[in-house]
Design a protein that fits this description.
The chain is an alpha+beta fold. The chain contains 14 helices and 18 strands. It has four domains: 110 residues, Uridine Diphospho-n-acetylenolpyruvylglucosamine Reductase, domain 2, CATH 3.30.43.10; 116 residues, 2-Layer Sandwich (Uridine Diphospho-n-acetylenolpyruvylglucosamine Reductase, domain 3); 113 residues, Alpha-Beta Plaits, CATH 3.30.70.2190; 84 residues, Alpha-Beta Plaits. It has a seven-stranded antiparallel beta sheet with strand order 15-12-14-13-17-18-16, with helices on both faces. Strands 7-8-11-9-10 form a five-stranded antiparallel beta sheet. A four-stranded mixed beta sheet has the order 3-4-6-5. It is globular. It binds flavin-adenine dinucleotide (FAD). Flavin-adenine dinucleotide binds next to strand 5, helix 4, strand 11 and helix 11.
Length: 476
Amino acid sequence: MTVLQQPQGGTVGGNADEVLAALQNALGESELLTGTAISDKYLKDWSGERGQMPLAVLRPRSTEEVSKALAVCHAHHWPVVPQGGLTGLAGGAVPSEGAVVISLERMSGVEEIDAASATLTVLAGTPLQAAQEAAQQAGFFLALDLGARGSCQVGGNIATNAGGNRVIRYGMARDLVLGLEVVLADGTVLSMLNKMVKNNAGPDLKGLFIGTEGTMGIITRAVLRLHPGVTGANTALIALTGFDAVVKLLRHAQQRLSGLVSAYEVMWADYYQSATTVGGIRAPLPADYPVYVLMDMQAADPEENAERFAAILEHALEQGWALDAAVAQSHADAEDFWALRDSIAEMLNAYAPTINFDVSFPISLIGQCVERLRAVMADKFPGIHAMYFGHVGDGNGHIVVGPLPDDNRQTERAVEDAFYEVTRELGGSVSAEHGIGIHKKPYLGHSRSQAELDVIRNMKRAVDPRGILNPGKILD
Ligand SMILES: Cc1cc2nc3c(=O)[nH]c(=O)nc-3n(C[C@H](O)[C@H](O)[C@H](O)COP(=O)(O)OP(=O)(O)OC[C@H]3O[C@@H](n4cnc5c(N)ncnc54)[C@H](O)[C@@H]3O)c2cc1C
């Protein structure tokens, strides 16, 4: 009898050899990696959290195989960790000691685009970018977009309820999911591949699996909503006097463009300067303005909107909100502007080890929040680099702090304690879009009441009574 110590202190009992034999029997040896065949890539994600050695990594090719694997693990009370593209920033996919990892990497491909219904049906292991490209080829737009698009998987995006660059207009992953196929902890397959926007036939079951980071079930397929009429965008990079001006411009642009602003990404000077030096990105505007906004408005014919869009920028300059602005004259220009925002991937490497904050507040409080956090850094952690940016049109701020000193996570914990205290005081959320995973568990109580946590625990017990699915993630 092997007794596995789970990270949160619970125990899962069973016999490792029996579990392996049962998995081999159910799936065949070729789907299983064990021992030295398990490469380092399965042990970590982008959060910097490092997992422990799993018993096996399974790479199923079908929902049926996922179901068989879960039925075996359920029967043996054995922990299972679902893995997507491993770009998560909260440690949700890192394995606990001896767990069975189920990687969705072989379940990839777009199965159907239903043009009449404007839906795309996709296997969960499909890279987001592949799904975006398939939608585009069919004349549609898949509105979910984030910097990790080349590596993250649609299943991982749904399991984390990913946000990204287009939330201001189209919502988060949750708002784009019409249907899901999910395998429960005991192997039961829930086939909820609904294509309808309206479906009030009882509670919205699929919602239970969106944003719950693989703790309630394994997503194997999804039906996503597509948007028509997007062939390009009017795009501008604007330098502003400060955060008040950022909010004024946002409100003005939303009003003049009838709510069609499709991205409103804010970069404070420290971010802009890092992106254009360490990140190696060309600076379309000088680097000494207080704050920059990357704004765009997507449309079927951006040319038609060029005047309207330019008028907004002129107004911002006349009002003294904007100090400078560059309007993209071509697709290449727009890509250059976006490269500034997307260079976060390179910067996470350049400034490693980093802490990546992903907090949200009512938009009106974000400027105040950044000021408070800057004061914390100057007072308690002078000399450590911090960059402020985010999807501010959705109230979402990101802060990257690093490189951290090599002091066994002492500084990391101290910075997190200080930042999340500010988040609690201002009534914000400790996770806007990255999830809780293991990394933010100590701070979940800053944003959730005890009564809410109890309900989440009860829901988990109802669908995974043996607690085998991603144990120790989100909650103990
Ligand atoms: C450069 C960069 C930029 C990023 N930008 C953004 C951004 O703008 N917005 C944003 O929201 N996030 C962003 N992220 C974070 C990350 O890309 C997202 O969280 C993404 O949705 C994770 O997808 P993944 O496939 O990599 O999931 P993984 O990291 O593999 O897993 C994430 C969680 O989902 C679970 N999971 C994975 N697949 C499944 C499945 N099929 N069924 C059930 N559970 C599953 C895992 O157990 C884990 O808990 C960024 C990350 C990087 C590195």
